[in-house]
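ok trying again, last paste got cut off:
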Amino acid sequence: MTYNTIKNVLPFFKFIGKYSNVREVTSGNVNNTFVLEYEDHQRKNYYTLQHINTYVFKNPHEVMSNISSVTNHLRNALIRTSGSAERRVLELIHTIDGKNLFEDEDGDIWRAYVYIDGASALDITNSPQEMEEVGRGFGNFQKLLHDFPAQDLFCPIPNFHHSLKRFFAFVHALDQDKAGRVKDIEEEIEFMFENRRMLGSIVKMLDNGIIPYRVTHNDTKSNNVLLDNETGKAICVIDLDTVMPGSVLYDYGDAIRFGASTAAEDEEDISKISLDMEKVKAFTKGFIEETNGFLTNEELLNLPLGIKVLTCELAIRFLTDYIDGDVYFKVNSPDHNLIRARAQIALLNDIVRREKELQEMTERYIARAAAKNN
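nice, full thing came through this time. structure:
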């Protein structure tokens, strides 16, 4: 059945060898992903084939232009600095007519990469050591792209982290009250209004030139860094669909928000929700050691702000969708988005309680990294 889904697409890509097998990867939330096996004499070649979700990514050609530009830059930087880029950057497989995507007769869009074998993507890090490697992976990603002109990239999801516009959308949803739910969430509404100034702080810093625009990943979950199965070291950042101009504070903040929470994003018992400070420290150590030397002082010192803003931003997105009647996020119950919003609010409250600790930790790692360079 899986083969029937893809059989008419395979001949249009420059795969080496003869097709022998396929398995579908079901862990992704956006694109449909398949791992292909091809036999080339005594060797087996593996490829990743993806069907791009054009409902989410309405301009797939722009997405692929970004990915092609960024991966080329990463490859050249890796070869220049370490002599090899093998297994350390995504490698696109072009179509037989030299394009980086294929549009079938139904208008569906497909792309392919060389599959990176012998590596794992962790949905949850099980130790500070794994979290540190995730931090190093995303930090190295920033380092290799620090001289890439971010303004040359398209924005596949406009205003994705424009928190002020997220707040305006929230206010508009309140006025519309499409699902008749506003009356039941007075406490959550008040919380968002109390935090609106903080929510818009990174956008204002970018607009005022206090911090620079950089190439940002914008989906810095732990499962978007491949760790080598033998060494446990970070080798490659994957899932580059949302690469676009932004702030490094977005990537750092979202990685901590997701990877260092003690509970799931939809945990109903808010007493279980807090920051795992050992994971925070581990990620921060790896991230700062990799980015030391090119991030500005303003960026480094405001890393903890990124955690607050990104947690609040997701809370307001969940709450807005709840008010609108659950039109964006998939839900398992009528209150699922409200539960998610409350979970992020609980996490944000813990972040605020630890604000001094987070700032002191950040400054300590900044000082240590600077001392290593002297």
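cool. The first helix runs from residue 2 to 6. The two ends are 60 Å apart (CA to CA).
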